[in-house]
């Protein structure tokens, strides 16, 4: 009952934020009404260019507030620098561009760099442009992030809000959240202990009052990052309410202008970066009176261990030591992550809480047969479905055209595809068509995986491909069912690792329809139907190569065609 009541409160608060954002969507904003600068990070120059193109198109379609500077900053070439490195690099570029004028600006920095290997339908266009089943025009993550923080700029001293592109915080507060303190100010959400082991957790200073309100301002004694339940208990992070244990986990934080200058000075001391720095773990663990140097040597939870990281962390600690870490407790809030195929399917089709809180629709900005979708608990976005087409329970279809009597199985993701008459997508299938351009020639490649496939799992050499699984079968068996020899399969990249992301198995085709059909035949071959024989001399690419050769304008052009058909049908 408590959960239902909480969802109802969040639904009302979220609706108010969306309504407020809709009043400025496509309109000129007044000074102080909205962010002065919206900064989005990209992993490289190619991604930067694609983000800028999409932002320009969104502005042209009046999907974003006007009169705001939207900037995209690419990470420097070479070493991966993490979102902490991106934060510092972006600060430097802002300082170079605006100088002392930056002291008057309210900035939001959204970390969106990377290739979204756990949600590949966001790989080509970027996770910040992930479509959401609400709004007209259709919302993407960029608009939703801006909508959820729409009240922040008018209650914020000049400074910068740091957030990520694939998470979502819904909250209800009786008063406005105010960002006016020096140092860092972080939002905190009550979460189960299991969530705390994979996120940052705040150990709070004692409260002045024992009463619990929906919005509380506290100070943090110590910040823990991805620690065990035992460690969280020992440090005093575990709290109890009505026999329920919980911790306060991190999401988004603000730094005032003086702290931005401190971070700039830090960057001058540690650049050029040659290792990944975490904007949460590496910055926030150095804050609060309980912070010690111990964390600088703890690399147990670091994805890529690097000998430079310990020294960099020590410099961060010495630079930020003494800065305050203020915490805004959002006791009526929820934190959602949308970065994997499983999370994507669950939240868009099965999760009654988020569907209610956000007002998620079974179909948004689409042509479809209403009765079919209402029964299916499916999700369709920016797509055209023939009245006789069907989408099964728990599946998502986005930016696609589905012809007569075509079917989509359960818990599938169909993205950017043209599904011809009578074709059937198997259960638990991810399938996505991309456009490529090589030497001026436009081609199409459709990639497909099982929802459970781990695209990042690697083996050291091609001969070990039997250890990689695709649709539940060893990869060498899949290759055999496609009429290929395992020895002939190529892996792209530098050859240091072999995984599904780099495996060159997807045929290049002249048009969208044949591309989809060719790859779908390969999927069915693995799922037990007859073997397929790819035509001789068929060029095969990996998803990694496709993204390097992607033709974004063609892909956006297909979406525009769908848009025009949908508008014409309304």
UniProtKB/TrEMBL annotation:
Keywords: Nucleotide-binding, Transferase. Residues 100-510 form the GDP-fucose pyrophosphorylase domain. One of its GO terms (molecular function) is nucleotide binding. GO terms for biological process: GDP-L-fucose biosynthetic process. This is Fucose-1-phosphate guanylyltransferase.
